[in-house]
Amino acid sequence: MNKRVGLWFNLNKAVIVSITDDNEAITRITSTMENYIRFSDHVPGDGLPEDARDGRFWRHLNEYYDHVIASIKDARAIQIFGPGDGKYELKRRLEAQGWTDRIEISDSPDGLSDLQIKARVRAYFPARPMYSLS
Question: Which pTM was predicted?
Fold first, then answer.
């Protein structure tokens, strides 16, 4: 199967547009993670309440990335776009799994609707012709 994925990504949600030869689907993954706030410059591991909050934040963030990666694992080509730097961390994680040649990354404004995201992905992965002229 020739599955191509466009992924609008930030740390709050991922909108995944999957395109195959005969189907198109859109999936949303929402993170319920609170914003990360650093409260002090103490040495991690001191047993302070901030350490527990930091640990929860990073575990949740890793689970969110893992969930997104599991949702796109069978794609042959991946376009990642969106605001912020989260997309670069996602790209780094995908490259660590050997997906370097499948990924293209770009910026986009925040606040795109699902239809705007879908249109951008369709433009990036133009439809294949239904027949060949050979």
Answer: 0.79
